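REVIEWER CHECKLIST
Item 1: Sequence provided? yes
Item 2: Single chain? yes
Item 3: Sequence as submitted:
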Amino acid sequence: MPQERRQNSRIRLQTPVRVFCDEEGEDAFDTRLRDISLGGLFINTPYAEDLGETCRLEVVLYEPGDPINIWLEGTVVRREAQGFAVRITGFYQESFDRLRDLLLHGGEESADAMKPPLGL
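Item 4: Structure as written out by the authors:
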C-alpha cells in the first residue's frame, strides 16, 4: 500500500470554484471542488491544465446568509481523468483564516453546512 504523503487534513467539499490559469484572468472557467485542505485541493473538471502551471482560484463557501469567497493561488501538481490537483502556494489572509477555521473546527459537518443551497 502506498504511503500517504499529505501533511494536512482534508475534507470533501463539493462547492463551486472559478479557476484562472492565465496572467490576464481572461481564460477562466467555473467548476466544482472535490476536496480541500490547507495544503491543496482537487478540482473536478474535464479541462486538463499543465503540470506546474500557476492558477488563481476563487472558492465559494456558503454560510447562512451570503456566500464567502476564498481567494487562493496554487500550482497544478497532478492530473487525473476527473480533474487536477493544486498545491496551494498563497492565500489572502482573510481567506486563510476562514479555510483554517473550517478545517480545524468544523470538519465534514461544517463542510456540509457550507455547500450551496439546492438549486445553485
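Item 5: Key structural point noted by reviewer: The mean pLDDT is 79.
Item 6: Recommendation: ____
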